Amino acid sequence: MIPMVDLKKQFQEIKDEVFNVLTSILESSQYVLGPKVSEFEKKIADYYGVKEAIGVASCTDALHLSMDALGIGEGDEVITTPFTFFATVEAILYTGATPVFVDIEGDTLNMDVNRIEVNITKKTKAILPVHLFGHPADMRKILNIAGKRRLKVIEDCAQSFGAEVDGRKVGSFGDAGCFSFYPSKNLGGYGDGGMIILNNSKVAETIRELRNHGSRGSYRHKRIGFNSRLDEIQAGILLVKLMRIDEYNRKRRQNAAIYNNLLSDKIRCPAEKEGAYHVFHQYTILSPKRDEIQQRLKENGISSVIYYPLPLHLQRALKFLGYRRGDFPVAEKAAREVLSLPIYPELEESKIVKIAEIIRNAV
User: Which of 99, 168, 179, 113 is nearest to 146 (CA)?
Assistant: First the structure.
């Protein structure tokens, strides 16, 4: 079996360091908002070149708390993509705001920035781009639109740790950048975890209160908050992996290049636009023969996943938004054709060759 990601193999390479940091945490008996969380927050801020980094329980919470702290709420609209994980729109709805979808680009599968301005209304408060599968959204144009219209920008970086636009890391462009440390992510822990990065210290102070029941401590509560804290054990594990993230991403890119070389004459391989540094959280192909390819891979013991089989505007839970089939044809076409293949730093070239051969035969 070739899995989508092999966390066991990665663990074998770092287990001594992981056990050492876990032992130190257990001996300290500090498990919530302890020194490892503070150290990890500082190193993330340094890595991204921002003033503030705040550990939270998940990327869903990171998006929610960021929008809450930035004043987005009831009656507001937030422009985003219909082709992403459900958490993106959940976080908008948690604030009381309404998600407004725009269709996607056919190559990167990110939000089509040329469709944003026609969807801006008097209620529009923010733009929420998603750097899907590890490829950066067009942040230059998004910031230009946001600047002219005085809109907030919250970046969903759940799948894009380390991705760049013109040498600048995504997450550092907008008013807030939100990250996931789910185990399968490029930088993943051994449970849930998230992070918010930003440069506005006043907003950061609000987020720190929101993540801890509306309090900075001493049982004095300035606001109604939430329980959303990155725990000490996850921070310790992530510190071990953070030292290797650039190498992990380099190997992902190397494996993607091998796939491209073997498949680009047969199917649509992932795009990488000029100036973009794609970190390939997923290696996602597009083909009208997607289902046949997936079946052939399954028969040969190779994992593959469809991210995502149904765009958000067609999800039953979001029917109340009033969208219909045909509203976003590019996203709907992508949902019929996308297939993500195994890609992780430890994936051997021989396995990529095997996967590619099966796909070539299938098409």
Answer: 113
| Global confidence as pTM | 0.97
Mean pLDDT on 279-293: 97
Three-state DSSP state, 241: helix
What residues contact 349, with CB distance under 8 A and at least 6 apart?
255, 258
Q: Give the strand order in the sheet containing 52-56.
A: 52-56, 194-198, 176-180, 152-156, 124-127, 77-80, 98-101
Tokens in use for 105?
A: 């680009």
Mean pLDDT taken over the chain: 97
Task: Answer yes or no: is pLDDT of 173 > 90.
Answer: yes
| Identical fold, 7-102+109-242 and 245-362 | no
Amino acid occupying residue 342 = P
Q: Is 292 helix (H, G, I), strand (E, B) or coil?
A: helix
- Round to whole Å and give the CA distance between 361 and 180: 36
pLDDT tens sequence across 43-59: 999 999 999 999 999 99
What per-residue confidence (pLDDT) applies to 218? Answer: 84
46/60 Cα distance (integer angstroms): 23
Q: Are strands 194-198 and 52-56 parallel, antiparallel or unpaired?
A: antiparallel
Whole-angstrom distance between the N-terminal and C-terminal Cα of the chain?
22
Residues 6+ apart with CB under 8 A from 333: 106
Which one of 3.40.50.12280, 3.40.630.10, 3.90.1150.10, 3.40.50.300 gives the CATH number of domain 245-362?
3.90.1150.10
57-85 pLDDT, tens per residue?
999 999 999 999 999 999 999 999 999 99
pLDDT confidence tier of residue 94, bands split at 50, 70 and 90: very high
The class that CATH gives domain 7-102+109-242 is alpha beta
Sketch the domain layout of the chain as residue ranges. Answer: 7-102+109-242, 245-362
Handedness of CA 307, 313, 316, 321 (dihedral sign): positive
Angstrom distance (rounded) from CA 247 to CA 269: 23
Extract the tokens encoding 129.
Answer: 């781009």
Cβ burial of 199 (10 Å; 0-12, 13-18, 19+) is: middle
Structure-derived torsion over alpha carbons of residues 226, 214, 206, 172, reported in degrees to the nearest 10: -20
- pLDDT attached to residue 20: 98
